[in-house]
Design brief:
Elements: H1 3-30, H2 37-56, H3 58-66, H4 72-89, H5 93-116, H6 119-142, H7 149-157, H8 163-185, H9 200-213, E1 223-225, E2 231-234, E3 237-242, H10 249-267, H11 284-298, H12 302-315, H13 324-331, H14 345-364, H15 372-384, H16 410-429, H17 433-438, H18 443-452, H19 462-470, H20 477-490
Parallel strand pairs: 1-3
Antiparallel strand pairs: 2-3
Helix pairs in contact: 1-2, 1-3, 2-5, 5-6, 6-7, 8-14, 8-20, 9-10, 9-12, 10-11, 11-16, 12-13, 14-15, 14-16, 16-20
């Protein structure tokens, strides 16, 4: 057996073990009894230690020195294995295991604090997670990944991205987003908010139908409930979660659509890449492009909401929205709300920008965890014109920092930018897209995304994936133009 073959066989086992670890994470958030949290944290630490040891063993370096790829796919695999080896080698097994153990416990503590609006309950845990992630980021930065700890953590979610590049993109986007918001909120059009109560069972039934319409393969997936919706797994086992608020069915429906986008990406990767370094999404920016294009450009389109209006009218008694046009306006209603995941397309990226600035300060040490609530509330009031009424509407609303995902938030906006580019190319490629969506047939769009984005997995670099699919280098302009056109029509600007 050649060095390349030995390395790939070993990597296959490591990737399979990583999938098992992911399944433990899914179980923790969906099925695990609360009393098992401490034990599970120890289990998570052990598994992460095993993964770290496999990814950093000296035999990896020996194989990499000897291995010769026969084609571009093989060379990409070697490059990705080498990158993982270099990153993981910057971090001690003790630190890797401790991060896994602490963040496993932290998730439950955050969920409890969020449910009770108890910041004090969460702060010691946040301080512990932040300390560990700073240590990780500093070690990675010293090893050549980024100019500082935050850049190093960001690179783990979006290879090659930097805070400077993300910040420059945000600076270009903010003026147009703010200007659009002011025109919308200053106009005379006021779409009605959705009223009424919507039983949980009926919401979940419709959510399942919508996920299927978007191409989710139920023979390889399932839908469950979680505090914070997420997608988990790859290949033939890709699971999604959602949440239900009986007074707000959009929470369930659009959380499900968002996670379906993630799941379709993982289900759509060419099986030849399974258990290889290419057998998963290439970056969180590209991943979020798939969730956001499903959620917004497809799921909130006039055509798809017309179909959804008919389904809701049939599913729920006393459904009071009188027409597809009224429903379309209600779905896309612009308001300065507290919750990122429930925000409209105009405000969403402003939510991300707030988090980006705060987490850079946290990781950089210029903002202490104990001062985060005040900093959040001040910034939110400045950006959105609303006083934060309770912590679950403020710093406790997102799961990310509790589980150490510092550097993740900017990938949401990068995903929106990528989605804007992909949507432009998709409409050009599929002139009958609206006709399909109007009958609940989103499969042609999913098929195009599978062919042009999903199937390659991590074979290409993130921006290259988008460039190959669209025929041009990604830029924020298509997204901003789409937002101006869409909301200009709805609000008659």
């Amino acid at each position: 057996m050649t060095a390349f073959a030995e390395l790939m066989a070993f990597t296959r086992e490591t990737e399979a073990l990583a999938q098992v670890a992911g399944r433990l994470g899914w179980d923790q958030e969906v099925m695990m009894p609360r009393g098992a949290a401490e034990q599970r944290s120890e289990e998570a630490g052990v598994v992460e230690g095993l993964l770290h040891a496999r990814r950093t063993g000296p035999w990896i370096a020996d194989w990499l020195a000897q291995a010769q790829a026969k084609d571009a796919s093989g060379q990409r695999a070697l490059n990705l294995i080498a990158r993982t080896f270099k990153r993981e080698a910057c971090i001690s097994v003790q630190l890797a295991s401790e991060i896994a153990r602490v963040t496993s416990m932290a998730h439950g503590i955050w969920a409890d604090a969020r449910a009770n609006d108890d910041v004090a309950r969460f702060l010691p845990t946040l301080e512990q997670v932040l300390r560990l992630k700073r240590e990780e980021g500093q070690a990675l930065s010293a090893g050549g990944f980024g100019i500082d700890a935050y850049d190093a953590l960001l690179d783990g979610h979006e290879p090659g991205a930097t805070a400077a590049v993300m910040g420059a993109m945000f600076a270009r986007m903010r003026p147009r987003l703010v200007a659009l918001r002011e025109r919308v909120l200053g106009g005379h059009v006021r779409p009605a908010a959705l009223q009424g109560q919507y039983p949980a069972a009926a919401q979940l039934a419709l959510a399942r139908e919508v996920a299927g319409a978007l191409g989710y393969d139920w023979t390889r997936g399932r839908l469950d409930l979680a505090v914070h919706p997420f997608s988990s797994g790859s290949g033939n086992d890709v699971r999604i979660t959602t949440r239900v608020v009986e007074s707000d069915p959009f929470n369930c429906l659009y959380s499900t659509i968002h996670e379906t986008g993630h799941a379709c990406y993982e289900q759509g990767i060419d099986p030849q890449y399974r258990f290889t370094p290419m057998g998963h999404g290439v970056s969180m920016g590209v991943h979020e492009s798939q969730s956001r294009i499903c959620e917004n450009q497809l799921g909130r389109s006039r055509a798809f909401t017309a179909w959804l209006w008919g389904r809701m009218d049939k599913q729920f008694a006393n459904f009071e929205v009188r027409s597809p046009d009224d429903f379309y306006a209600t779905v896309n209603r612009v308001q300065a709300g507290f919750i990122r995941t429930e925000s409209d397309e105009v405000h969403y990226n402003l939510h991300v920008m707030l988090r980006f600035d705060l987490e850079r300060a946290l990781v950089g040490g210029t903002l202490a965890a104990r001062d985060l609530e005040q900093a959040w509330n001040q910034r939110f009031a400045h950006d959105f014109g609303l006083p934060v009424d309770k912590p679950s509407h403020g710093m406790l609303q997102d799961v990310h920092w509790s589980i150490g995902l510092f550097g993740y938030f900017p990938t949401y906006t990068l995903g929106n930018v990528y989605a804007g580019c992909l949507h432009q190319a998709l409409r050009k490629a599929l002139p009958t897209l609206d006709q399909n969506l109007a009958t609940g047939q989103a499969q042609p769009a999913t098929d195009w995304l599978r062919e042009n984005v999903h199937s390659s997995g991590a074979l290409y670099r993130p921006a290259e994936v988008i460039t190959r699919a669209c025929g041009f280098s990604p830029t924020e302009v298509p997204l901003l133009d789409y937002l101006d056109a869409k909301f200009g029509e709805i609000y008659r600007l």
